[in-house]
Amino acid sequence: MCRGRLPIKTSGRPISSDHNIQPFKSDFIRGNVMTAEPRHESTLFVVSAISQWKNQVADVGVAAGMNCVSAHSLARFLAAAGDHDGPACAFIDVEVPDIDWSTLHQLMLERNLEIPVVVVADEPELKKACQAAKCCVSLVITRPTDNNSIREAIDAALSNQKVVGHQFAVERNYRRLLTLDERERSIVDLAVDGAPNKQIANRLGLSVKTIERIRKNAYRKLDVRSTAEMTRAVILGGLHDIVATNHPVLAGSLGLPGLMGLQGDQYATAASLSGSTT
């Protein structure tokens, strides 16, 4: 997602505090942007109660040509994120208290907010950061840190956005598969294996019309319109256990040691099924 590394700029208009800038929505601010209309392709969300930290991250984002949005709570972040379009990442303090991390993941999934999350923690809070990383976090960084490291974290998060999208697709299809009853799932599995309706009917001792009716219900529950889409949904849903045990906590000097979520053939399979390329 990142279009190349840009040098960190130390000049330009700094973001001093929320009340010195024309608000975007309620308590949201846009770094160096005085209008409600976005001027940049990528968006950087900063969720923190620490003004100095928000200013530091926003300065780095503005220097990189990003649209910066600040919020003091996860509820405000979710409201703002629903309005954004295009590449984005979010820096969120581990101590932001209004929504727990599993709930945040659930809400982002339901609202289709495929935004890589960078959790920010002071050294004594690393245990909490590790717990957050099990839910919806792409990267962990610790404070204090310099502008170059912040920029590297932004680049890493943006480059991870497609992986987050693939993971959301896997979980979304897994949950839809769970809504099928036993007979619907049997018919879906047979159809995915290539069996026509007549063959499925003979095997299950049902009429073709009954198979067609049950299959139509399964299409509705899976939100698909064809056998090809149904096959894609079943395969993506089947990757759930792989993705759940390999959530992407990016390794490196920026944060905690971790594992990429989908690697090698697993990533390639998810990417092709969800219709994206790297």
Task: Describe, in plain words, how this protein is organized in 3D.
It is a single chain. The chain is an alpha/beta fold. Strands 1-3-2-4-5-6 form a 6-stranded mixed β-sheet, with helices on both faces. It has helices spanning 51-63, 74-81, 101-110, 126-133, 147-159, 161-178, 182-192, 197-204, 208-222, 227-238, 240-244, 264-273; strands at residues 29-30, 43-47, 67-71, 88-93, 117-122, 139-143. Helix 1 (51-63) crosses helix 5 (147-159), helix 7 packs across helix 10 and helix 8 crosses helix 9.
Keywords:
278 residues, alpha/beta, six-stranded mixed sheet, 12 helices, 6 strands, 47% helix, disordered N terminus, disordered C terminus
User: Helix count?
Assistant: 12
Distance N terminus to C terminus?
A: 9 Å
Mean pLDDT: 75
Q: What composes the largest sheet?
A: 6 strands, mixed
Judged by helices, strands and strand pairing, the structural class is: alpha/beta
Instruction: List the helices and strands in order.
Output: EEHEHEHEHEHHHHHHHH
- Which runs of at least 5 residues are low in confidence (pLDDT < 50)? 1-40, 245-278
What fraction of residues sit in β-strands? 5-15%
Sheet with the most strands: spatial strand order: 1-3-2-4-5-6
Q: Using only CA atoms, what is the Rg?
A: 22 Å
Q: How would you describe the shape?
A: elongated
- Helix content bin: 40-55%
Number of strands: 6
